[in-house]
Amino acid sequence: MIKIAPSVLSADFSRLEEQIKLVEEGGADYIHLDVMDGHFVPNITFGAPVIKMLRKVTQIPFDVHLMIENPDRYIKDFVDAGADIITVHEEASIHLHRTIQYIKSFGVKAGVALNPSTSIENIKYVIDEVDMVLIMTVNPGFGGQYFIEQMKEKIIDLKRLIDSKNLNIDIQVDGGIKLDNIKEIASYGANIFVAGSAIFNSSDITNVTRMFKNL
């Protein structure tokens, strides 16, 4: 089943509650929350306190993407703030299997993200433990980038690996997702799409969210 996860990284932070309501009306399946620390990626966004406040304004599941160093130190904070899915980067997790188990110990779903240059081989031995794999289709840190074409093959390879193990794992893609490429990317096996600027920079946020869903 195809799901849409609007990324508030591209939202108007002065109207965040209002814009979350707009994507909710459009049928968004998740709210994608990019947490950046200025170390793992060259940008800083927000942390658990902001997510905790947003939890009060919507019941849509929170998909929290931790683009941070030492993620284990903060996982409980994000669980307490209301995260439903917590995704950590393979590149930032020294003991990835332990981190996945730690996330799941709180009763939330665990995801693993891969940067464009990171091989799927790096998660081959933990893939049985995760609920979702996030393929970064841009280099992380900034919104509004263009989809890296080589990531299509990576999505296909990941789907092949998941199917070979007969696993039920979501494939999420994040970066450069537009109305004119989502159908093609879905055909490669991805089923959760993070869209930021394509939704929040539009003149009709609710309608564009609905258009993504319909496609």
TrEMBL record:
Cofactor(s) this protein requires: Fe(2+); Zn(2+); a divalent metal cation; Mn(2+)
Residue numbers binding a divalent metal cation: H32, D34, H65, D174
Keywords attached to this entry: Carbohydrate metabolism, Cobalt, Isomerase, Manganese, Metal-binding, Zinc
Co-factor note (free text): Binds 1 divalent metal cation per subunit.
InterPro entries: Aldolase_TIM (IPR013785), Ribul_P_3_epim (IPR026019), Ribul_P_3_epim-like (IPR000056), RibuloseP-bd_barrel (IPR011060)
List of residues binding substrate: S7, H65, G141, F142, G143, G144, D174, G175, G176, G196, S197
Swiss-Prot/TrEMBL catalytic activity: D-ribulose 5-phosphate = D-xylulose 5-phosphate
This protein's pathway: Carbohydrate degradation
Main EC class the enzyme belongs to: isomerase
GO molecular function: D-ribulose-phosphate 3-epimerase activity; metal ion binding
Free-text function comment from the UniProt entry: Catalyzes the reversible epimerization of D-ribulose 5-phosphate to D-xylulose 5-phosphate.
Family: Belongs to the ribulose-phosphate 3-epimerase family.
NCBIfam families noted in UniProt: PRK05581.1-4, rpe
Protein name (database record): Ribulose-phosphate 3-epimerase
Protein source organism: Proteiniborus ethanoligenes
